[in-house]
Amino acid sequence: MNIGDLEGSIINAIKDATKEAFSTMLMTELHADESFVKNEENVACDLISSLHFFNDKYMVKIALFCDAASACHIAGTMLGMEVSEVDVDVKDAMGEIVNMIAGGAKVKLESRMGELHLLTPWIISARNLKIPSRSDRKTGFIIDSQARFSWVMTKFSFDKGTFIVSVLPNEVPQNSADHSDKDINILQQEIANLKKENLTLRAKFKEVNMVV
């Protein structure tokens, strides 16, 4: 089954998992707008919390795009305390949120996609982060240069703010009919590339005290 056939199931699973995570862990009810497709150009926010889940055939990125005020409220609700600025606790909380969303979606999708594995979340925060298109590599940074599809975004709102949960589905390239070893090597290279990208982001944003 190709990733296009699975896209609707992936989007719905992540929508449901997002609502369930907020309802269960934060006692917060969310309203979800209709999903929309957007390329990487002009996506702006104050915090990005993201991770991948994958197996030998599929790789899907989930990213939560959030403004600082909404991130502080979400983290404060999780921690049971007043939070006024994006600090390490807020970043940790937002990493846990995207981890819960991905974990919930994983359970819902494994019957169709097979066993899936989660990578560790990474978080970037700064005022007015902007993600350029893949063709513009001179400014900002690329959130996923290997993407074959555009972001499928869903805007969620609650009484204290809004955020966007985005999905970027992809397939691990298939090089031959007898491809199991090659797929493993490709997947390992993808993971190595992600780790390298994280190190690059650490260095690039060190001046503004970012944690990835």
TrEMBL record:
Coiled-coil residues: 177-204
Keyword check for Lipid metabolism: no
Presence of the UniProt keyword Repeat in the record: no
Alphabetical list of Pfam families matching this protein: CheX
Keywords, comma-separated and alphabetical: Chemotaxis, Coiled coil
GO terms, biological process: chemotaxis
Domain Chemotaxis phosphatase CheX-like residues, every copy: 54-139
InterPro entries: CheC-like_sf, CheX-like, CheX-like_dom
Name this polypeptide is given: Chemotaxis protein
